[in-house]
């Protein structure tokens, strides 16, 4: 056969091979099902590329995230999502694998990794095998019927492909034997070898030797002396193989094994006689190891963690149990230094699709560092539990939930000594709650049982810091509109209980409250509106004998009235308008939005009512326009006041806010006579605090938030805070400062006099994370109390990473309150996080990400609030 510059196509199937063999046995002149045809140079390639591109786009469009985005009617640019997706996929053709994908931050390290495509589903026994080559030779009249393909040889079955220099087809064995440089690939993997490979048409398997393989779109690659691929079972077996997630030119670490099995129908791969190597040095040996190849869970060891503190060394080894598809349990034994053994358990469950939850139980059998109180046997056992469940019914309209936390009785320092991932170290009460909500378009119903376990020692003097239980609280709302008239009704019945303690019996109070509201939309033309409204308050109290407690004055009443009725009403009128103009480069828009509100609530003496769930709150721009001067309904302040405010915004050409400023103040025609506590001073100055706020993101990398409350009577700030953040791709810096007059306790004064005295709160903080060259990153954070002159929290972390490994050194020093001595102690944590990237991590205990600016007390947040 003469060689030409055209490529020939030769199609063979298992059925055709059987026909050829039977025909050759029965006839002297056999007939063959062999066809040749001319294929235009790159027509098939173009068709294949278009098909793959369309398939990829359809798959992305059908993903849950895309469907949620497209169903969000409030996103104006969702209509252009498909067009933008096509442009993005054209500019970024590389696609990562669903499991062990190449991270976006490391794409430059894996430029030689082929893109992932979803494997096609087909019957390997009936789908034809197509061979393309520059040249095909062989004598078809001989009994052997062997053929030799040379040049650019391609053996293809759907998306499975073998590219080689020479391929020999043996009719008798129904095998292809390749010679020279051979590449075997499908959408999930690519295999290279320079030695002969045998492809068996009967059982759809391939036998190779001395291979190098790469999982497409994934960091996982390796090599093998013997490599078997079974396409019928969708599995691979490696003999004397290695696995690593390092790039091709990096051998920082690898896992070697005598045998490795990867079955794509299973969730985990398996390796026998495995050893982990750091470069050329073996680190440790494992007779058997399994590793994930999908996102499916499986019973086994999770990442261990290690940390060293000023008073302890802690090592943790989690063990995961996949009990069922809808149940799992994580058991975590830990050695916790002076606290000795700790056994942490987390059970997650979802018995039905609409019901799910978790149970956390932490148990310390013998914490010798803790001295129990009020325990006759002196047992050092400590424990903590947290049950959370949620269930929805009636298409999500009815929701019920449980949130129950508890520690061993009289263990008041548990959260201070042993930080819990699901509880704040500053909590002084643990919530125990059962609640239900039923929500319909025009009404809602709610029921709640709530109590607390106090982490403050039970004394008569602690009555003011003990929250009331609500056993139960029943509430509901009703709302509707008619033309320009709208109205709603809120009602509740709550049974409060102060639980028995310190030789005091429990006391109970029942509060019944109704709050109707009606509003009329008087005017609405071109951004100018006027609304008037009225509200009523009808409350009845049946109060227990709270006046028997010492320091009962902290509960807010003067002379307690056992049965008390309170009736009040509110009248209000609110008007606002919006002015706008083009500003700056005439592409930006500036708005000025003045608003004014008048409110009137008459005075009623409420000194005979205790405070059950009512507290004071800080005045800001938005609270000045509210009729509630206190957070709660046990105090309703008398109001005869006019509030005026103005907001100004700057919008960019896409109508996104880049700047918002607000300023508001209330003028009282009559001084407010209702106070929270009887000892509180009644205000006589007619003007409220002047409240201001500022949010800005004028530059792409800089955000700013500030809020202030200025006392115009004494010409001083009551409170203010400033937070600024600068972020780039390689660095971020956040600085903040807050001040609140008389907003803190004086610890030194208490130690001298035994009485708490208020003092100003002045605290500042800074947090930064910055890249130091290509492989290093530094994180530092510090928060300091400037008024009492001590460091609240300090953190420093340094990380060195390359494409393959990462090591982070972590140090944190924070203040820890010793409530028994009423003084601050220092606690320090030192840790090292070692990461075989995308494979295994030894963590710092209690620290998920040591390079985050988060600290023990202060989470990293961006307070800037703009409509973006």
Descriptive account of the structure:
By secondary structure, the chain is mainly β. Among the domains are: 8-39 and 94-292, Lipopolysaccharide (LPS) transport protein A like domain (lipopolysaccharide transport protein A fold, Sandwich), CATH 2.60.450; 313-370 and 380-455; 481-688, no CATH class. The protein is 7% helix and 51% strand. A hairpin with an 8-residue loop joins strand 12 and strand 13 (253-263). It starts with 7 loop residues before the first strand and ends in a 26-residue tail after the last strand.
Distance from N terminus to C terminus (CA atoms, Å) equals 69 Å
CATH class of the domain at 8-39 and 94-292: Mainly Beta
Q: Using DSSP, what is the number of strands?
A: 45
Beta strand %: over 45%
* SS summary, helix count: 6
Major sheet summary line: 26 strands, antiparallel, barrel
- Shape descriptor reads elongated
Residue stretches low in confidence (pLDDT < 50, at least 5 long) are: 1-41
The fold-level CATH name of the domain at 8-39 and 94-292 is: lipopolysaccharide transport protein A fold
């Amino acid at each position: 056969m003469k060689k030409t510059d055209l490529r020939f196509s030769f199609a063979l199937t298992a059925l055709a091979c059987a026909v050829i063999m039977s025909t050759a046995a029965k006839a002297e002149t056999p007939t063959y099902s062999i066809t040749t045809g001319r294929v235009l140079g790159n027509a098939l390639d173009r068709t294949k590329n278009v098909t793959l591109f369309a398939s990829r786009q359809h798959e992305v469009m059908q993903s849950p995230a895309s469907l949620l985005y497209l169903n969000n009617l409030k996103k104006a640019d969702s209509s252009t999502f498909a067009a933008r997706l096509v442009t993005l996929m054209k500019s970024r053709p590389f696609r990562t694998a669903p499991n062990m994908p190449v991270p976006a931050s490391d794409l430059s390290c894996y430029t030689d990794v082929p893109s992932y495509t979803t494997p096609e589903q087909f019957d390997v026994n009936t789908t034809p095998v197509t061979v393309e080559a520059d040249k095909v030779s062989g004598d078809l009249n001989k009994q052997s019927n062997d053929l030799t393909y040379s040049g650019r040889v391609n053996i293809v079955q759907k998306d499975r492909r073998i590219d080689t220099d020479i391929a020999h087809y043996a009719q008798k064995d129904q095998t292809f034997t390749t010679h020279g440089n051979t590449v075997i690939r499908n959408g999930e993997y690519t295999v290279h070898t320079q030695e002969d490979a045998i492809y068996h048409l009967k059982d759809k398997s391939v036998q190779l030797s001395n291979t190098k393989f790469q999982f497409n779109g994934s960091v996982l690659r390796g090599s093998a002396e013997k490599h078997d691929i079974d396409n019928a079972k969708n599995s691979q077996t490696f003999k004397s193989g290695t696995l690593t997630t390092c790039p091709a030119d990096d051998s920082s670490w690898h896992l070697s094994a005598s045998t490795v099995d990867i079955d794509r129908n299973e969730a985990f791969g398996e390796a026998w006689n495995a050893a982990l190597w750091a470069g050329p040095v073996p680190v440790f040996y494992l007779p058997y190891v399994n590793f994930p190849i999908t996102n499916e869970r499986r019973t086994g060891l999770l990442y261990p963690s290690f940390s060293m503190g000023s008073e302890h060394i802690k090592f943790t080894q989690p063990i995961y149990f996949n009990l069922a598809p809808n149940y799992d349990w994580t058991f975590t034994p830990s050695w916790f230094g002076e606290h000795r053994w700790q056994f942490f358990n987390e059970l997650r469950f979802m018995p039905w699709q609409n019901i799910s939850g978790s149970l956390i139980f932490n148990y310390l059998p013998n914490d010798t560092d803790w001295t129990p109180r009020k325990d006759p046997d002196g047992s050092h056992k400590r424990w903590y539990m947290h049950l959370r469940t949620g269930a929805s019914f009636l298409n999500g309209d009815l929701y019920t939930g449980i949130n129950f936390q508890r520690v061993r009785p009289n263990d008041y320092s548990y959260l201070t000594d042993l930080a819990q991932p699901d509880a704040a170290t500053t909590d002084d009460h643990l919530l125990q709650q059962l609640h239900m909500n039923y929500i319909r378009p025009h009404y809602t119903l709610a029921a709640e049982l709530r109590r607390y376990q106090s982490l403050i020692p039970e004394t008569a003097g602690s009555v003011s810091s003990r929250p009331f239980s609500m056993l139960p609280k029943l509430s509901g709302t009703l709302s509707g509109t008619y033309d320009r008239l709208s109205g709603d009704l809120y009602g509740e019945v709550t049974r409060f209980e102060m639980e028995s303690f310190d030789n005091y019996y429990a006391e109970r109070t029942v509060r019944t409250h109704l709050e109707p509201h009606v509003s009329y939309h008087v005017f609405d033309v071109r951004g100018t509106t006027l609304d008037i409204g009225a509200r009523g308050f009808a409350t009845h109290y049946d109060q227990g004998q709270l006046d028997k407690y010492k320091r009962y004055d902290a509960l807010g009443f003067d002379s307690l009235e056992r049965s008390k009725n309170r009736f009040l009403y509110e009248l209000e009128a609110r008007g606002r308008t919006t002015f706008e103009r083009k500003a700056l480069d005439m592409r930006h828009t500036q708005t000025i939005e003045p608003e004014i509100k008048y409110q009137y609530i008459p005075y009623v003496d409420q000194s005979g009512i205790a405070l059950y769930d009512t507290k004071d709150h800080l005045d800001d721009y938005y609270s000045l326009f509210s009729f509630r001067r206190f957070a709660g309904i046990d105090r309703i302040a008398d109001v005869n006041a006019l509030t005026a405010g103005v907001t100004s915004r700057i919008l960019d050409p896409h109508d996104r806010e880049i700047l918002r400023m607000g300023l508001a103040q209330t003028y009282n025609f009559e001084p407010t006579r209702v106070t929270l506590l009887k000892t509180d001073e009644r205000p006589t100055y007619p003007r409220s605090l002047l409240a201001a706020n500022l949010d800005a993101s004028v530059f792409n990398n800089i955000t700013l938030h500030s809020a202030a409350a200025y006392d115009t009577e004494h010409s001083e700030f009551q409170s203010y805070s400033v937070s600024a953040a600068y972020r780039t791709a390689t660095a971020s810096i956040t600085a903040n400062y807050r001040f609140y007059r008389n907003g803190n306790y004086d610890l030194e004064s208490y130690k001298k006099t035994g009485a708490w005295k208020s003092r100003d709160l002045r605290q500042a903080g800074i947090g930064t994370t910055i890249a130091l060259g290509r492989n290093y990153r530094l994180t530092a954070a510090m928060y300091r109390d400037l008024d009492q002159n001590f460091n609240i929290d300090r953190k420093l972390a340094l990380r060195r990473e390359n494409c393959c490994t990462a090591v982070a050194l972590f140090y944190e020093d924070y203040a820890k309150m010793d409530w028994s001595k009423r003084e601050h102690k220092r606690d320090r944590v030192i840790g090292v996080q070692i990461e075989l990237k995308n494979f295994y991590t030894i963590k710092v205990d209690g620290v998920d990400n040591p390079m985050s600016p988060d600290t023990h007390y202060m989470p990293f947040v961006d307070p800037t609030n703009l409509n973006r």
